[in-house]
Every structure is written in structure tokens, then in C-alpha cells.
Design brief:
The chain is mainly α and 78 residues long. Helices cover 76% and strands 0% of the residues. It has two domains: 46 residues, no CATH class; 30 residues. The protein is built from three helices and no strands.
């Protein structure tokens, strides 16, 4: 995500001709977008994206269970 934000900032700076980015080659300005694509591809291939989604789902499930236990007057599950 940081690379994407960096790419957008550099693109805006280049478009508005703000120095020193205005003098840079378009390759340097567009490089963060290519790196973002590579990062997303590697994250998908390594299972990082799926793992993070599963962790988020498990965390939400635990919160729902603890909220239900709290409503029933039971101590939260750890």
C-alpha cells in the first residue's frame, strides 16, 4: 500500500511539474507502481494475503463469541 501511495504522490508531483520530481525520468516516477504489482503478486503467491484474511476472520469470530458470552454473563474465552 505504501508503494502505491508513493507512486500516486510522485505521479501528481510529476504532472504538476514540481521540482525535483519534474526533472526525473518517467521510469523513476512509474517504478513504484511496478513494484506494487510485484509485491501483490508475491503476496498472493506466498499465501500472505490469504493468511491475513484468515487471521482477520478468526479475530472477528473470537470477538463475536466473546460478545455473546458477555451478554450471557459468562467470562470471555481466551
Amino acid at each position: 500500500m505504501y508503494l502505491l501511495i508513493l507512486g500516486i504522490v510522485l505521479l501528481v508531483l510529476k504532472y504538476l511539474a514540481i521540482e525535483p520530481v519534474a526533472q526525473w525520468s518517467w521510469w523513476w516516477v512509474l517504478a513504484p507502481f511496478a513494484l506494487t504489482v510485484v509485491w501483490w503478486w508475491l503476496a498472493d503467491q506466498s499465501g500472505y494475503t490469504r493468511r491475513k484474511a484468515m487471521e482477520k476472520e478468526e479475530r472477528r469470530k473470537a470477538e463475536r463469541v466473546n460478545e455473546s458470552r458477555k451478554r450471557l454473563g459468562m467470562p470471555p474465552k481466551h
